[in-house]
Amino acid sequence: xxxxxxxxxxxxxxxxxxxxxxNIKGIPFPRRADAEQQNKVIELCKAAAxxxxxxxxxxxxxxxxxxxKQAIAExxxxxxxxxxxxxxxxxxxxxxxxxxxxxxxxxxxxxxxxEPGFNVQKCFRAANEVDDDFEKSLDFAFDSKFGxxxxxxxxxGTGMRASVxxxxxxxxxxxxxxxxxxxxxxxGMTVRGIFGEGSKATGNIYQISNQTTLGExxxxxxxxxEQIITExxxxxxxxxxxxxxxxxxxxxxxxxxxxxxLTNAVILTSSEAMSxxxxxxxxxxxxIINNIDYKSINTATYSVLPANIVKNYNTxxxxxxxxxxxxxxxxxxxxxxxx
Length: 339
What we know:
The chain is α+β, with helices and mostly antiparallel strands. The protein folds into 2 domains: 2-238, 2-Layer Sandwich (Creatine Kinase, Chain A, domain 2), CATH 3.30.590; 248-334, no CATH class. Helix content is 46%, strand content 16%. It has 11 helices and 10 strands. Helix 6 (218-246) packs across helix 7, helix 7 crosses helix 8 (270-286) and helix 9 runs antiparallel to helix 11.
């Protein structure tokens, strides 16, 4: 899957995403729509997807078990909000899950296109293609002055959000992360945790996205976004170098201890696994560990999340999950997934 791969600037940027918010003219927003109207949106979207040129597989979210919904939310294919069964909801997925179209989330459609590494332009081209496919059959709510009309006023205009998932261990370790977040806020960016709004930056992984969509073109938003993220990448790399040079052996000791714990632990909680995997990723980034690749770490990162363990191993007991999590990490870091 796309989220286990490594792409451009992969030592800092884990993934990129473009999200387009769209609504069908004449139908209330999902939270205001009744069950019949919600179902109408789903049927209209199914018909549009069938006519489109991009192969997408439809999944009825309401028919899924809770852990199944949580598992695809952990992989960023749906938002946590989609897990609420009070609204009729579904999702279209491409075979590799790089395209995800959420139906009846906050808006009628949330078109998401994701890529490993720093590649928002490729995501944008893919999202536009999906958008065009749906717009051939659907009449989107659009105003000549305000642009695309959306449930949340902050999305009005282009309806576009660009975001990247970044690993910032050095800026976090140095205590510089709060000033970086403040600076990004002043530049019209928002910083959240790994699972978006309301989540924490588990494993030193942050999500950075643009805040404004009104009064700007998609091209201007992307150009500015890329410039800002490039600066964040440069600052993280510079801080890594400074931290490592200031106390080389202490850094090596800290990171290798985490590697030792991961490859020898019998029990691992989710938070501990994410924290230690961040250290191992940092060690790979610094060249301290050179026989493990980013794909292995990415695979481990998503494989150890709670709902994915339940889904893949039918392990519902928390204590059993902690045992299985340790086993998974040992196999990935010491097994055949390594170079």
